[in-house]
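Reviewers asked in the last cycle whether our approach scales beyond single polypeptides. To address this, we selected a multi-component target totalling 226 residues and predicted its structure end to end. The input consisted of the following lines:
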Amino acid sequence: AQSVTQPDIHITVSEGASLELRCNYSYGATPYLFWYVQSPGQGLQLLLKYFSGDTLVQGIKGFEAEFKRSQSSFNLRKPSVHWSDAAEYFCAVGPGSEKLVFGKGTKLTVNP
Amino acid sequence: KAGVTQTPRYLIKTRGQQVTLSCSPISGHRSVSWYQQTPGQGLQFLFEYFSETQRNKGNFPGRFSGRQFSNSRSEMNVSTLELGDSALYLCASTRGQGRTTEAFFGQGTRLTVV
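The resulting structure, written as structure tokens, was:
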């Protein structure tokens, strides 16, 4: 069965610090992987996606993620966090974009 | 271009009633997927429609249904509402063809069942 695990429910970082959000997936075929961000009461915005090719993918807002097949991981990183990055982050996997399985999310708090 | 539009944004219904939510996809997108988001279960896939046909279905009871019109707009219906149906319902649209398509999400409809 397909599943996504985000081990960290809540992470707090200081503004300017680096960030890494973890994501592990279980998928029977070649996975399509996504990271979405959600601000309170809002929909989801795509940060980045991995379909194939280079395992380090760049996204919007300075985020990047690295696909590691051997570890079934797709961790999200940002070198320097801004206060506006405070939100909830979701990792997702699917056969494409139409039927996504999401992790439970990681809530990011940014301290000034 | 206009994004995905969901109406209404907020709804309050009573147990036992039924509700219909609407989703207008991005122009040119033919696939609409629906998701339920709750604090306990997180984001769960309900169903996906492509060209007026249900193409994928999640693990929800038959009280949850949907349809898609020829202009790709989609509605989902929940009958005999239960307190546990209180959630944020999100829809997402994609072109629907080819795997390398991006899903764009609406802002959601917040349903409260009392």
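The mean pLDDT of chain A is 94. We regard this as preliminary and will revisit it once experimental data from Aim 1 are available.
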